[in-house]
Every structure is written in C-alpha cells, then in structure tokens.
Amino acid sequence: MTSPISLTQGTGSSAVVDHCQVCGSEDLRSALFLGYMPPVNQMRTVGARPHEQPAYPAELLYCNNCELVQIGLVVDPAVLFPPDYPYTSGTTKILHENFAELHAESAEILGLGEGDLIVDIGSNDGTLLSKFQAGGFRVHGIEPTDAADLAVAAGIPTLKAFINAGSAAEVRAEVGPARVVTAANCFAHIEDIHAVVEAILSLMDDDGVFISESHYLIGLLDTVQYDTVYHEHLRYYSLVSIRHLLEMNGLEVIHAKRIPTHGGSIRVYAARKGTREVLPSVGEILEDERARGPMPDQLAEFHRRTAASKIGLLEMIAGIKADGHRIVGISAPSRASTLVTYTGIDEEMMDSVLEISGSRKIGKYLPGTLIPVVEEQVLFDEQPEYALMLAWHIGEELAPKLRAKGYRGKFIIPLPEPKII
Q1: pLDDT by residue (tens digit) across 95-123?
Q2: Mean pLDDT of 59-85
Q3: CATH code of the domain made up of 297-420
Q4: Residue in 351, 347, 388, 389 with CA at minimum distance from that of residue 369
Q5: Does residue 59 sit in helix, strand or coil?
Q6: Is the dihedral of CA 275, 276, 282, 283 positive or negative?
Q7: Which of 38, 133, 177, 204 is the most exposed place for a label (fewest CB within 10 A)?
Q8: Residue 11: its pLDDT value, please?
Q9: CA angle (312 as vertex; 310, 315 as ends), nearest 5
Q10: H or E element: which one contains 107?
C-alpha cells in the first residue's frame, strides 16, 4: 500500500498535503495555521551573518474520514534530519524512566524471554535499546543520523539508515526476525507511512508485536501544545486514527496506554490480527475519546486557546521588559523554535537560551533568530530576573533542580496559559 504523499529524499523538496496521509481522503479542513517555520534542527553558529534560510508553512489539517490530524506540508527528511541532528534521547531523565518502564511492561505483557530480539526504529543514541540489552535481550537499531554513532560506541548494534524495505531486509538478514519492533517518538515523523508499516511487518516474527510511542493528540489539545507543531511531526495521532492506520495494514491494536513523555504521549501495541488477545485498555481509551465530543469542535477550541496564549505571553513579556528586567530561556528543545517563531520572541526580548554543558546546541542560534544558546551556568552567575521555560512540559523536573543549584529568579511557564512562578 502506498501513501498519498511521498517525496524523493535528498532533493530538498516539499509537498503540499491535499490527500490524507493515511486514508487518502481529499476531505481535509484547516484547523490551525502558525505561520512559516524554519527547520527546527537547522541551527546556525553564533556569529554567523544572517543568510537566506528556508521557512515552511506550519498548518494543521483534519481528515473528516479517518480523523487524522496532520501537518499541511511534507518536507524532505534530509532537510529535517541532517546528519548532525542535535537531539539525543539520553539527555532527558523522563525518557530513561519511560524506556525502563516500557522494557518491564512489554516483557510482562508479551511474555518475552531472554535472547528475544528487539529492533528499534529511529533508535537515536540507543537509550531505549540499552534498557532491553541490560535485561538480557538481543537488540538492533535503525537510525539515519549521527546519533547512530553514539549508539554503536555504547555497544548498541545500529544500522545508519532511514527505515525502508531495504534497511529492514538488511537488518533481518543479519539478526533474524524480531519479537518486538519499537518506534518511540518517530512513528509520526516518517512519510510514506504505509511503506514504513510494511517494512516494520517484514522485521517482525509471525507472533511479533509493534510498539509505537507518539505525541497524543488528546493531550496536545488539553494542554494547548501548539509548540509541538513543526515539520518533523507529520501526524498527530488519537487512538482512533492510529488504529485506522494499523488496521489498513492488517494489524490490530492489543494494548494502549497514555504516558507522560514529550508533554503527553500514547503507547500503542499492535499485532497481526487475531494473533494476540486485545486488552481492555483499548476499549477504555476509545470510549474516552468518543466521550469528548466531535473532533472539529475540539480543534476549534484549541485554535482559540492557542491565540489567547500567544497574546497573554507577549503581554507578560512586554511588562517585564518595560520594568527593565532580563529574560533568558531554559532549554532549547525543538518545540522552542515553534513557540518563539509563532509568538515573535527575538533577541530584544530574550537574551539567550540555556542548555546543560555538553549539549550539541551550545554555540548555535535558536532557529530563525539571533538568540544564542549558551551554557546553563549563566543562569547562576548572572541571575537574570526571569527564566522562560521553553521545555515547560518537563518544568516540574527542571525547576527544583535549578533552584537547588542556586537560581533565585522567577520562572515563566508559557503553556497552557502563561504564568509566573
């Protein structure tokens, strides 16, 4: 099965979405437009003169047929995921905890045995696979960026490639069929999604299980996470829409669970239809989604709250700057680029963005701005009066740590509604 949208990788091209990425329906409606966004992981070196850079429209579309919410423009993955892709999953405590929990949960639910093979798609630096490896499982990753080199250095076998029929065949020929294939925070990022599912199926044993973790649309709407809208994220799944995608490819959802990663995600287990028992969690989440009312109404309310949040944040910043106070940003996740671009925050409003020592983003500008990313120590040495939590979704984890290390100023939490703590 071929997806309606597919690009020739490496050409720098883009494609307007006029058919649903999953079901092919032309019955799409615009739900939100955030303006034109730069690629969130193309960061220029501090001191470099401004030069022409691409910017792509960031629009959410809703499919009236299968209820998928999706980005309105697909950009060449070679642009979005350059070899020097700066994100590494091992730098966040909540991901370590989540992946350890995934290992324990899946081993119990699926009855996994020592020596079973786990293959991770978009395996990044191998953090997820390291949890399974420590539990006695065989592991193998497929990762297109230089993060694959970090995984290999840590003893995680990894093929440096995008997932497709060829890379799947290469891994299966080398290590055999997998009992479990995982895709954590990347299953919504890959174009030609039906071809991806076919590649995943080719990796799986007959009784194998595919486990995905993706941003959960319902959590996104509830907490006004417009900042998760950027071009890496092609699709925003509810359980209804991801089940539709999987069923189109002969897979059946057997378990689902809401998890806290990335500000609210959903973990979905799927097996070939009829091979495994469907657990009650599936029906429970589907019923919860139905009880919320029509999705178009939910999206309209999300649009309204997004605009109100932007206006409120700018009014708050204007007051702080009028009083002569300094503002820095805390952390530079990809979502920070969307928030800054959509609200129009620039170097006149925010002096810098702080990252922990060793981050590959230090010494770069936040995309589309002249706001430099600098070491976190600035926060304690210079004590700026306000710190804007750009990684607000893990603010409860970050704020106590920064207080304990000596920061005495105030934190700005931008979403769901701007507030100062």
Answers
A1: 889 999 999 999 999 999 989 999 999 99
A2: 88
A3: 3.40.50.720
A4: 347
A5: strand
A6: positive
A7: 177
A8: 47
A9: 110
A10: helix 93-110
Task: Show me where the domains of the chain are located.
Answer: 14-73, 89-291, 297-420
Three-class SS state of 146: coil
Percentage of the residues of the chain whose pLDDT score is greater than 70:
95
89-291 CATH fold: Rossmann fold (3.40.50)
How far from the centroid of its chain's Cα atoms is residue 358's Cα? 22
Return d(Cα 354, Cα 331) in angstroms, integer.
5
Cα separation, 256 vs 218, whole angstroms: 14
The pTM for the full model equals 0.89
Across 1-40, where does the E strand assignment appear?
14-16, 28-37
- How far does CA 403 lie from the centroid of its chain? 28
Which phi and psi angles does 382 have, rounded to 5°? -100, -15
End-to-end Cα separation, the chain, in angstroms: 51
pLDDT of 168: 97
pLDDT tens digit sequence for 251-307: 999 999 999 888 899 999 999 999 999 999 999 999 999 999 999 999 999 999 999
**Quick one: pLDDT band at residue 8, thresholds 50, 70, 90?**
very low
d(CA 46, CA 66): 44
SS3 content of the chain, % helix, strand, coil (to 5): 35, 25, 40
Please state, in angstroms and rounded to a whole number, the distance separating the CA atoms of residues 35 and 343. 10
Three-class DSSP category at 164 = coil
pLDDT band at 84 (very low <50, low <70, confident <90, very high): low
Judging by beta carbons within 10 Å of its beta carbon (0-12, 13-18, 19+), is residue 400 exposed, middle or buried? exposed
The closest alpha carbon to 414, from 226, 267, 286, belongs to 226
What pLDDT shows up at residue 95?
85
Mean pLDDT of the chain: 93
From the list 51, 4, 42, 43, the residue with the least C-alpha distance to 23 is: 4
Q: Is the peptide bond before 400 cis (omega within 30 degrees of 0)?
A: no
Coil, helix or strand at residue 56: strand
What secondary structure, in 3-state letters, does 366-407 show? CCCCCCEEEECHHHHHHCCCEEEECCHHHHHHHHHHHHHCCC
Amino acid symbol at 90: G
